Please model this.
Amino acid sequence: MNTTLLSKYDVAAPRYTSYPTVPYWSEPLPEPAAWLQHVSSAVQADRSISLYIHLPFCDSLCTYCGCNKHITKNHAVEHPYIQAVLREWAMYRDAMPVKPVLRELHLGGGTPTFFSPENLQFLLENILQDVEIAPQHDFGFEAHPWSTTEAHLQTLFNLGFRRVSIGVQDFDEDLMRLVNRRQTIDSVVRCTELARQIGYDSVNYDLIFGLPKQTLTHIQEDARYIARLKPDRIAFYSYAHVPWLKRSQCAYSEEDLPVGAEKRKLYEEGRRLFETEGYVEIGMDHFALPHDSLSKALGDKTLHRNFMGYTPYKTRLMIGLGASAIGDTWDAFMQNEKTIAEYQQRVQAGELPVLRSHVLDETDQSVRSHILRLMTTFETQWTPAEAEQEWLQQALGRLEPLVLDGLIMLEPFHIRVTEEGRNFLRNICMAFDARYWKKQPEGRLFSQAV
Ligand SMILES: C[S@@+](CC[C@H](N)C(=O)[O-])C[C@H]1O[C@@H](n2cnc3c(N)ncnc32)[C@H](O)[C@@H]1O
Model:
């Protein structure tokens, strides 16, 4: 990759799992109950829903981790947490005028496999009895290879799960020890093989590039395991270094982190090797084999992206249950209390545990559509009427240097991201980010774009 472009565009930039990005949520709902009205209208308009359940516990701390989690070895925490999630779910069900049709269900963490299979079964049976399950549904969960047992995989399979996302990060055991992650190559192989034997039809691996002391040799070794184990999908995440938010990232020296051109090379080597193995690059940082539903959705231009990542389905309503979970009705966002204690207390008091929210105005919704199209189809277009709007004219002004640098092709009422531009998708989306440009952050908010 062109190193001049790399140094020019390696700036702090959001990953755009939402627009507006969470730090820019500034038009809150009038009161927590207003959120349920948004949910109710969304279900009335379209019964299909996506459900995300955040299961925040982990029994040890992986120091690189940027997720919302709580470290404990005390499994007595499972029961009260599940009770709170079910109570929260009951508030949603009571507010829905019709029975929802569950299209997508994702268990994320933390470590969902921290919970016993029996407790997961209890939680999910209670939720599933209250919904109609869409004939074409997508149920998946995040599996830590160290704690995932055959009973976890079988229990969730029996409940309709067909997709498992295995946290691998890197196959090298020394590298994993350095970030305090308990994991062996054998545990990844075992988890993969068990999932396949049981009948899961999509296995995803989460890999990270840019970890401390990670080199090209590690990526090449990872690719050898990929060639052997052939996961259907790979999420190849750029390591997000945010020590001001995640203190555990101070456990290693910043000098050991590959940055800039060195970090980018890790991605490019991974991409080259995955493509040699037949993987197709999907949007940003994701790969899938051609038979996988994500590749098909890319081809059909039906690919969607929400807080759970890339998905072949689009639902208007996403409900997030559990501490820190985010809900999305397309015209509003809501995030739950982040700490487990506050989340549980508020739910137990019969209250919706809203920490923050944002109601999207018309401009937000337009910007959101453009960013979503760029992230899923590498192009976006607008109408002559939209072109008159000030925010879009300003965005087009910000895009001019990116056109000159060959990152996008500007045509009348349309832009297309070039091959080179795909490496800078976050920067291209940022040109549309009206709220960011209206008020740039004073402190550090986002990780580097590369
Ligand atoms: C909630 S975590 C994983 C679930 C499970 N606890 C595990 O470790 O296997 C979801 C994914 O986020 C990614 N992730 C976590 N911290 C990250 C960071 N700082 N930068 C980039 N990706 C990160 C990892 O790839 C991880 O598998």
